[in-house]
Amino acid sequence: MSQWAKVQQNPNVFRQMSQYYPALFPMEIRFYLCAWIEDQRWNEIDENNPQYAPIAQKTLSEMLDLMRQRAAELTSQEFFIIKHKLDELVQKLDAIVKTNPLELIQVIKKVLLTEQQLIEQAEQSEQQMVQEFPGIDQSGIGEEIMGEIQNLSIRTRMTESGLKDLQHKQESFILRFSDSQKVQVQLQGLLQTPLSIERTQQETRLKKERDDINDQLGQLAQQLQRQRVELARKYEETIVNLQDLQKRILDNELISWKRRQQMAGNGLVLDASSLETLQQWCESLADLIWQNRHQIKKSNQLQQQLPMKFPDGEENLLQKLNDTITGLLSTLVTSTFIVEQQPPQVLKKDARFGAVVRLLVGGKLNVHMNPPQVKATIISENQAKDLLRNDMKARDDTSGDILNNTGTMEYQQSNGQLSISFKNMQLKKIKRADKKGSEAVTEEKFCVLFQSEFSVGGNELVFKVWTLSLPVVVTVHGNQECNATATVLWDNAFAEAGRVPFNVPDQVEWAALADVLNMKFQSWTGKGLSDTNLSYIASKLFGNRDPTGCMVTWSQFNKDPLPNRPFTFWEWFYTIQKLAREHLKDLWTDEAIIGFVSKNQAQDWLRTQPQGTFLLRFSDSEIGGITIAWTGETEVWNLAPFTSKDFQIRGIADRIKDLSSLVYLYPGKAKDSVFSKYYTSTTENVSSDGYIRPTLKTTIPEKYAPGSELEQLAQPFSPDSNPGSVQSGVMLQTLEPMEMLQNLDLNNTDQMPDDIITDIDIDQLLQTHQFH
C-alpha cells in the first residue's frame, strides 16, 4: 500500500497531516501526483548542497509539467475551482523552481517524512491496542471483537471520504448555480438594450451558456441526490453494526465482568487486566460512534445548505440516524460508569471504608477537560428498585449518612483512566426498614449509589449518570459479621443478571452451594475442599442421604439450627474457615489437617493404626473448634477441641510437639517430619534484657498417657458421648536447669522465681486450662 493511501485510510493521520501541508506543497499536489511523488528518489538530492540545484530543477520541472497536464484534464465545470487553484500553483511554483529549487525539495522531503512518522505512530498504536488485551483469548472473543472494530474503522473512513466527495460536489453545484445566475442577470440586462445583430448574437451565446450550465446543474443535482441516499444507507448499515458490537461489549462482556467481580466477593480470582481490555474496547466504540455521529451531523448540515427533494420512494434518514447514534452514545456513557473497587459488603457502622468509581470512556470523550463531581449515598433495597424504575426522585432518597462522600474524578495520563478513589468514607447513620416476618437485620440489604453529571463535546451533550455498588449488609457489632457474611455470600453466588434488587432464590441445588463453599474456603485458606470434605459437609444438611440433586433452602443454610446443636450450618462452617484462616492456614495447605471427618470415620481409620497415630478434625459440637483423635493402647481417644482463644496462647504445632502420646500423623507420617517447621524456636524465649521467658506446655492426664495402667481402665471412645474426650492441660516450662524446677509447686506461685511469673497472667491460665 502506498504511503498516501495509508494517510487517506487513517482519519487521525489525515486530520493531523492537514496542518502540515504548506502553501508551497499543498494537499492538492499531494493528491493528484501521489504516485509520481512516491516514485522519486528525494533522498538522493541534498538540499543543502548547491551542486544538486540542476537535478532538483529538472525533477521539479517534471512535476510542474504533470500539474499542468492534470489541470488540463479537469474540463468539467464541477472541477473549476480546483483547476483554477492548480493553475495558480503552477505559476507560483514555476518562479521558485527557477530561482531556488532546493527550497522546494526541502519542503517536499519534510512533508513526506512527517507523513511517514505519523503513519508509523498510528500503526504502533493499533498494534499496541491488539497486544494490550491480556486475559482475552485473541483466537476467540477478543479477536472477533477486534476484527469488528477494525471493520467498522474501515467503513468509517470510507464514509468520511464519501462525505468529503459529496461536499466537494455540492460546492461545485453552488458555484455553477452562481454562474447560471450571473448569465441570467446578463441576459436580463441585455434585453434592456436596443435590438441589434450584436445583441442577438450575445443573447444566443448567453442562452446556450445558460442551458449548458443548467444541464450540468441537472446532472450534478441527480448525482447529489443519489450520493446523499447512498451515504445515508451506509450510515444506517454502520449504525446497525455499531449496535451489534455495543450490545456484545456491554451486554455480554461488561456484564460478565461485573458478574465475575461479584463472585470475587466469594473468592473468585478476578483478572485485573480484563477491565483494561474492556476500557480499550469501549474507547474504540466511543471513537467510532463519535466519528459517525459527527459525519451524520455534517451531512445533515449540507442538506440544509442545499435543500433538495429526495427521489421517489426515498426518505431522509439523517435525523432518525442522528437520534439513534446519539442514543447509542448515551447508552455507552451511562453503562461504562462503573464501580471498579466495591465497598466492603459487610459494612460496619462508623468504620472507615473506600471504593473506586471509573468512567471507561472518560478519556476518549475528553470528559476530564471539565472534571466531574461524584457523590456517594447509601440507599435501601426498595430505593434501589425505585431507581431502576426510572423514578427520578429516588436519586435524592437515602437511608443513612456517609461522611466524605463527594469528590472529583481525576484523569491519569499514563493509562488513560478517569476515576475517583473514595478512601475515607464513614457510615455515621443508617435507617432500617420495617422487618419482614422473621427477617433479621443481617438479612437486610443496602447498596451505595454513586452519581455524577458531565458534558461531552463542549456542553453539546450532558449526561446524568449513576451506578450501584453490590449489595451491602450494615452491622453495628462484630458478632453480626457471621450472619451478614452469609447474606452476602448467598447474594453474590445466586444473583441473576437483570434481577430486581436484590432478589435471590430461596433455595438452590447442593452442587451449586458446594462450589461456592469450596471457592470461599480456598480464598480464605489457600486450599479448597476435596470431594470427601464436601461429602462430609453435605451430611450436616442431609444426614445419610445422597446429596445429588438435593435442594438447600436459605433457612437450612443460616436460620435453622443443626440437629441437636445450638448453631446453624453456616455458623459451623464459617467459624471453621475463620479458625483455619487465622491459625491453621499453613497446616491446611500442607494437608496436615484432614479436618472434615466424623468421629465414626476417624475411629474406623485409626483403630487399625499403630499406637500414637493421630489426626486433626474439625469439631462437630464445639463451634470453631478442632480436635485431635489418636490411638491409645486399646482405644481411640479425642482431645477436647481447641479454639481460636487457645491458639492465641500456643499454636497447634507446638501443642502437638508437647504431647508424647502423638507419634504418627495419619496415615503413618512421623509427626516431626510434618510439624517441625512450624515449631516455635526456643531461642525466641530469651528476651533482649537477658531474662528467660516461660513457655506453656500442653499435657494430658497420666491415665491417658501411653503405657499407663490407668489407660486400660479409662472409659473407651464413644462417638455419641463426651466421656470419650480427654481434657488437655498446660504447665509452665522454662529454659532454666531442671534442678531449679524440681521443688516448684505450680499451684503455689510464691515458690516461683520472679523472672518466671512476671510475664504470665496466672489467673487467666487457671481460668482457661487445668494444671497437672
Automatic annotation (TrEMBL):
GO molecular function, one term: DNA-binding transcription activator activity, RNA polymerase II-specific
UniProt cross-references to SMART domains, sorted A to Z: STAT_int
Coiled coil, from the record: 203-248
Domain of life of the organism encoding this protein: Eukaryota
Record localization: Cytoplasm; Nucleus
An annotated GO BP: cell surface receptor signaling pathway
Gene Ontology cellular-component annotations: cytosol; nucleus
SH2 domain span: 588-688
Keywords assigned: Activator, Coiled coil, Cytoplasm, DNA-binding, Nucleus, Phosphoprotein, SH2 domain, Transcription, Transcription regulation
Family label: Belongs to the transcription factor STAT family.
Protein name, entry field: Signal transducer and activator of transcription
